[in-house]
Amino acid sequence: MDLHQLRVFQAAVKTGGFTRAGEELHLSQSTVSQHIKLLEEELGCPLFMRVGKRVLVTEAGKVLLQYAEKLFRDLKNAEMTIREINALKRGTVRLGVGPTTLIYRLPRVLRDYKRRFPDIELIVLSGTTEFLLEQLRSQHLDLAIVMQTGHQPGLTLTPLGEEEMVIVLNREHPLARQRTLGPSELASLRFILYEKNTAMQNLIDRFFDSLGVSPTITMEVENN
Fold first, then answer.
1. Which of 114, 151, 160, 161 has the largest count of CB atoms under 10 Å?
2. Residue that wins the pLDDT comparison between 199 and 191
3. Could you check whether 89-145 and 164-224 share the same CATH topology?
4. b or e along 7-30 (b: 16 or more beta carbons within 10 Å of the residue's beta carbon)?
5. Nearest-CA neighbor of 99 among 141, 49, 147, 42?
6. Which class does domain 89-145 fall in?
7. Among the ranges given (36-45, 149-158, 159-168), the one the predictor scored with the smallest mean pLDDT
8. What does the pLDDT read at residue 218?
9. Which distant-in-sequence residues (6+ apart) come within 8 Å of 134 by Cβ?
């Protein structure tokens, strides 16, 4: 088993057939078939099965695909690391951020980033804290900026700063002129809050629980 065979196998899975895989890799259909046959002989099991004119991946093929994709990601990460060691400053960085960070924080630093690292491609993926942590674990991201969270096995957490949580009211609201609001006043309000079981909403829920307040929620949204 070698990397070229695995790339041929991956292309056959992604394109859904040997002919299209050959077109993508500039190989003949027979060459693709030969690579797959050698892989199957080495592993001792079929990786594809034919159903009519369709070529479907077997369960063994699905398992091999997961390991092959992880291997290619590891090789790409190794290449990036070696380039950094040699101060070539080239490659790709995959960054995950929350929607609020994407809108209000990231634009300020992108110009400086491109000036300092013009040959490093930055790919940005936006999502909830839970989604971004999962993408880190599966090695689809290199780093992410997320909400404060508990211990995450296999990940390194570095605090970047603190942000203040505030209540936002219409300026005509009777409570808008007060600098602080008490529990009874919070209980009288109707809230637009975040989706349940997200890091931000869990933080807000713990705050309300500490006050003994059950907020009235009229709308749940994904981000600011």
1. 114
2. 191
3. yes
4. ebbbbbbebebbebbbeebebeee
5. 147
6. alpha beta
7. 149-158
8. 94
9. none
Q: pLDDT tens across 65-99, in order?
A: 999 999 988 888 888 777 766 655 667 889 999 88
pLDDT beyond 80 at 10: yes
Specify the CATH number for 164-224; select among 3.40.190.10, 3.30.300.30, 3.30.420.40, 3.90.1280.10.
Answer: 3.40.190.10
Question: Which of the listed CATH numbers 1.10.3720.10, 2.60.120.10, 1.10.10.10, 3.30.450.20 matches domain 3-58?
Answer: 1.10.10.10
Q: What percent of the chain has pLDDT over 70?
A: 96
Length of the chain: 224
Buried b / exposed e over 32-71, threshold 16 CB at 10 Å, is bbebbeebbeeeeeebbeeeeeebebeeebeebbeebbee
Q: What Rg value do the Cα atoms of the chain yield, rounded? A: 25
